[in-house]
Specification:
The structure is a homodimer of 183-residue chains.
Chain A: E1 3-6, H1 10-17, E2 23-26, H2 38-52, E3 57-67, E4 74-75, H3 78-84, H4 86-97, E5 101-111, E6 117-128, E7 143-145, H5 157-163, H6 165-182
Parallel strand pairs in A: 1-2, 1-3
Antiparallel strand pairs in A: 3-4, 3-5, 5-6, 6-7
Helix pairs in contact in A: 3-4
């Protein structure tokens, strides 16, 4: 049975396909609702995707960045921070507010063919640093994960994919799906 | 013909009813989509409201706060800033970033019975100040409109309603509706 990943992002699709068999892209442009809770956003997207494609297995992912200096903002609203103040603006914000700690989180929401939803989370702690590196996308240039001396944007895709919050969430989902397919 | 105002907010309802005749509340809890453009958010809400109540005249409003120090953020996302860092957090942010200028904006979106949408905007410039006053709600305590020595929260409801961005938008809508009813 095919598993549909609702995304327009070719990079995210490739990463998932490299770990999970039988993943197909479902390129629906679904509106994201306003929330700080990624699970709320994902549930709404899965519900809308199911309206358009009922009775198939679906996954939706959401990756968020939580700054300690802003009590966890922007979280899933990171996209709008990037559009307005950019990655360097995030760094300036953390500097001026005197706290560079941050968490990057990925949530994967899986809806089985009956619509039952299960979540898988991956989280990586790190610091918001001055922009470095030309790889990656979004805020990769300013996020340096703990235990590493490179930002995500200074790593090769393989290096990043080995340690990323997305990979952690994907591995949890893979383990779950294995048990599921066995039953 | 009744005009339905989609809102759960009794204060906003009263303010509109005091200016426009025949306004009735439609208390639907509609999800807000993520966007920095209030018109995009309002259009989505009007479309959903029309699905639930077709062929009636509807209005939806959105009030946003734009900080110069954050290139216009949070805008319509202000609700999430209040939930995480609070009104005093907004003030601290403006202080630390060295720019206290802000704009408060209200957009009213009106859908006629055929679904044609028209927008009305009201805007007030001011400063983000240290919290003062016990009235109002949300960020009223930290917003001091230009040309006044009180924050919105230090004004009586009548004082605030005379000069507010919401009132400006409502007056534009009233003028529009008058011509509409005359034709």
């Amino acid at each position: 049975m095919p598993l549909f990943f609702v995304t327009g992002n070719a990079g995210k699709l490739r990463e998932l396909q490299s770990v999970i068999d039988g993943v197909q892209q479902l390129d629906l442009d679904l509106p994201e609702i306003q929330a700080l809770d990624a699970e709320v956003i994902i549930r709404a997207k899965l519900a809308e995707a199911r309206r358009q494609r009922p009775e198939v297995e679906l996954i939706v992912e959401d990756t968020s960045l939580h700054l300690h200096c802003l009590n966890g903002l922007p979280g899933p609203l990171i996209k709008w921070f990037l559009k307005t103040i950019g990655a360097d603006g995030l760094h300036e914000l953390a500097q001026r507010l005197g706290n560079d700690r941050a968490e990057a989180r990925t949530f994967i929401g899986h809806a089985d063919a009956a619509g039952e939803v299960t979540f898988f989370e991956g989280s990586v702690s790190g610091r918001i640093v001055s922009p470095r590196g030309g790889g990656g996308f979004g805020w990769d240039q300013v996020f340096q994960p703990d235990g590493h001396d490179k930002t995500f944007a200074e790593m090769t895709p393989d290096e990043k994919n080995t340690i990323s919050m997305r990979r952690i969430a994907i591995e949890k989902f893979r383990a779950y799906r294995k048990t599921l397919l066995r039953t």
